[in-house]
Amino acid sequence: KMTQQMRDLQLAQARKPPGPSSPNAAKRLYRNLSGKFRVNYTSFDEGSLAARGEKEKLRKSYLFQSNAALFEAVELQDLDRVQELLKQYSPEELDLNTPNSEGLLPLDIAIMTNNAPIAKALLQAGAKESPHFVSLESRSLHLSTLVREAEQRVNELTAQVVNEAPNADCSEKEKQLRAWEWRYRLYKRMKAGFEHARVPDAPTNVHLSVASSSSVQVTFWEPLNVNSAVVTKYKVEWSCSSTFSPLLGEAVIDKLKNLHFTIRGLVSGTAYYVRVSAYNMKGWGPPQASMPPSAIPSNWREYDGRAPRRRGQAEALDHLLGQVKTVHQHCVCHEPCKNQPQSRKHSVSKSLKHLFHPGSKFLKTLKRGLYLTAIFYKDDNILVTHEDQIPVVEIDDTYSCLLMQDFLWFTKVSCMWDEILWLRQCVTVSQSSCSCILQTRFKMLLAISQMQGLLGIQDLGQVFFEPVKDKQGNILIVTLKEVKTNQTFESVRWVPICKLQTSRKSVSSPEEPTALDTLLISLQDKLAYHQHSSHALSPGLYLGYLKLCSAVDQIRVLVPEQLPNILCHVKIRSNPNISREEWEWLQKMASMEERVPAEPEADTSQNHLFQELQVAIKELMTLVNIPLQEAKDFRLYSQEVLDFGGQVSFLLLLPPSDDVCTAPGQNNPYTPRSGFLTLPLQIFELGEER
């Protein structure tokens, strides 16, 4: 037995792989392997660092060449090349404000050669003047030095070219001579431009307006006289005295893309005087006082101390929703959730049946009923199922209720995509009433949950403002969402929209198109509507036109197709604020019995608003195709200014009270031109909130 154990031990040892003969041998093997790997890693790191260093050198060399190219383009007065470089590179990459070897910046060369287009392009890109020119004398001395040195270099090279025999060196000297002759002429032209320049005239159209209860805004234009040098900055000064003594403050504006400045931190109810002056390389020009001469910081709400309409509303609604959720946590509808562990077997079997139920998949064809479809798009592509169909789920195959009321309720639910499960639990408790409306709305919530589950996403987007119908009795509620990132979805894939429309057209019936056919035919219009709905107005004061039309079950509002979330409108001015003085004048106009209001005094903010309103009303009437003589009975809504986020505000122009809302069958002789549509009022309100 012992002999057999020894044989087994020898066999076992023979099967083991050969290892190091000793611990020292194992250490030597580890050191050798580690050394090899260390050599490889080190060589890799050094190689990558060297490659990165080489790339950085190439990059710096390339940027240096672009900086040299910019100087050359400015010197050659090549405006197209300058604009191309400014568009291609950032100011930092171009070293736009780093002087060259002569102590000059690109902007210095442009303004001293009086090249206004190039100078303005450089200024808008953030170019500055050289900091070396602290005075007129220093600039003059620097230019004289450049001219003298260039002249001296030309004389030296001329003598060398004349005295030397023709050879390769002589040819190179001739090239240098031509280059220095050109530079000598450039410096002489710059010196002459500086000597003949004079200080700029005063800015024009200096307009002062009230921006808020603690600020005023001044806007202005360039000086009219173009014979002086290019203006490179402006100075705004303000004071409580018309003599500007003492000055309360001043600001220098060297970013000339937009010629305006807002003076903040002022005292409400105090008059402030403002003036503006321009600067060029010869110094500051005379100041120009604003029109009107002064402005008093204020806001129209100070007229009667009115608080903002929406102050605290969002917080109150959130609080109310929280209270409702708290109450429903103890509701009967949540008992199944609490008792879930005891009924696990039943719930599991029910969920398994749900997986094989036809309703748990996207539909291929429509039968008579109410359906939900979700359109997700990105650029020119759209999400479809693996059968190349737009995702559709069934809501109700026996729908017979009033569609508009249920549809408007659905649009409100679209503001709470993340709360669908909670809403389903709340609606379930009321099903015992067998109300047709509650049954349909519960089925809507089920369909939403089904669509969310199949797509693997909660947010289904914005509801299109009207359902799509066909003669077979099918009704499609459509949601739209633009995907701007590489987002993944379940059970669907991307295909080009044109391909989907072509394939659907080949199998559809042109005589009796289904709701899906109609949807695909009008898909581009619906996507355009969705994109336009997300556009925002630029800051300013607008004049809006309120026109409604009523039907049996809804009221609709007239809106432009390009901005369907806003009333028909034109812009009055860029400043959205209405001052207290302007609002007082509007109130007086509204209370006057005369149809033609008296024009306010000249040189006042009220007169400026009066002129702006006249222009805006004419433009708006032309836009909505209403003869100007018919607008004599129109009126401004004088109860409030509609504020939207502090940056956009509206004054409303209303037709006569009998014509604000057109009743069914009532003739409207003035139909707006193309480019308008009518939205259900509730849909418009939701779009406005978004």
Automatic annotation (TrEMBL):
Region (Disordered), start-end ranges: 1-25
Cross-referenced InterPro entries: ANKFN1 (IPR039269), Ankyrin_rpt-contain_sf (IPR036770), FN3_dom (IPR003961), FN3_sf (IPR036116), Ig-like_fold (IPR013783)
Superkingdom assignment: Eukaryota
Example of a GO biological process term: regulation of establishment of bipolar cell polarity
Domain annotation Fibronectin type-III: ranges: 202-298
SUPFAM superfamilies membership: Ankyrin repeat, Fibronectin type III
Listed SMART domains: FN3
GO cellular component, as recorded: spindle
Protein name, entry field: ANKF1 protein
Taxon lineage: Eukaryota, Metazoa, Chordata, Craniata, Vertebrata
